[in-house]
Specification:
The chain is of the alpha/beta class. It has two domains: about 200 residues, Rossmann fold; about 40 residues, no CATH class. It has eight helices and seven strands, in the order βαβαβαβαβαβαααβ. The protein has a seven-stranded parallel sheet with strand order 3-2-1-4-5-6-7, with helices on both faces. The radius of gyration is 18 Å and the shape is globular. The mean pLDDT is about 95. It binds NADP nicotinamide-adenine-dinucleotide phosphate (NAP). NADP nicotinamide-adenine-dinucleotide phosphate binds next to helix 1 and helix 6.
Length: about 260
């Protein structure tokens, strides 16, 4: 699949799934702006890809800050021109029982994982509508479709993101802009590494036992690689994917 001439923004694009998506988009010929809170990390990543001949840039943006999203849209327009592809990937995950989840933690999770993608969609949609072509992919989670213990705020935020995906898909049907979601199980990234560290800290399990406990929830019995999520994201972006709208594709090794 080629995306020459297309422009893309990937939030949380400096590591993990976002970095794999950014690399896959750039390999397909798109010009890509990766964003996140830590500019130094983004610049190291973008410089490395530019040295490989890819057109990738970094820009700081905390998606929990509406003003920062407005600035990101302006920087993207300046660096890339109108944006064709938005991948709402930035996200956080923390675990606690319902009793131990503070209002602050709850609101933070909703703000980063659901409100941020909503505001990014609002910021980038006008140019997509004007050009009658756009692709928005939201990186949700299996937790956006199913409940799980000790992650109520995360589950609620990802359900909200899947809900936003479906509502936007319905509202934008026929405009040339599609909105889809991918819903991975556990992926081999720094986020999962810190989940394992958290289980070790809270339960006294060894890292191997904690990893095995996560894998027990995966129908395929193994961790997903970030590149597998990137491949699913790209499948929702191609020109030929114009009729795929409002999907929430599970990626955890289960039978389709
Ligand atoms: P990760 O390795 O922790 O990377 C998360 C990225 O999001 C980082 O680049 C981080 O960069 C950025 N980020 C965090 N908070 C941000 C904020 N407020 N504003 C802007 N950027 C922010 O996580 P990952 O595993 O690649 O996860 C990526 C997405 O996939 C998340 O939405 C996650 O919920 C989802 N997901 C992950 C898994 C999994 O098992 N790993 C499974 C299903 C879904 P900075 O720290 O520099 O801001």
């Amino acid at each position: 699949m080629r995306l020459d001439g297309k422009t893309a923004v990937v939030t949380g694009g400096g590591q993990g799934i976002g970095a794999a998506v950014a690399r896959a988009l750039a390999d397909a010929g798109a010009s890509v702006l990766v964003s996140g809170r830590t500019l130094s990390k983004l610049e190291v990543f973008a410089n490395k890809l530019r040295k490989e001949g890819r057109n990738v840039w970094g820009a700081a943006c905390d998606v929990s800050d509406p003003a920062a999203i407005t600035r990101l849209a302006a920087v993207a327009k300046e660096k890339l021109g109108p944006v064709d592809i938005l991948v709402n990937n930035a996200g956080i995950a923390e675990s606690a029982s319902i009793a131990r989840t503070s209002l602050e933690d709850w609101e933070k999770m909703l703000r980063v994982n659901a409100t941020g993608p909503f505001l990014c969609l609002q910021a980038f949609l006008p140019d997509m509508l004007e050009r009658k072509w756009g692709r928005v992919v939201n990186v949700a989670s299996v937790a956006g479709l199913e409940g799980a213990r000790y992650i109520s705020a995360y589950v609620a935020s990802k359900h909200a993101l899947v809900g936003l995906t479906r509502a936007a898909a319905a509202e934008l049907a026929g405009t040339g802009v599609t909105v889809n979601a991918v819903c991975p199980g556990y992926v081999d990234t720094p986020m999962t590494k810190s989940t394992i560290e958290n289980i070790v800290r809270k339960t006294g399990k060894t890292a191997d036992e904690a990893r095995a406990a996560l894998l027990a929830t995966m129908p395929g019995g193994r961790m997903i690689q970030p590149e597998e999520v990137a491949a699913a994201v790209l499948a929702q972006i191609s020109d030929e994917s114009g009729s795929r709208n409002g999907e929430a594709v599970i990626i955890d090794g289960r039978e389709a």
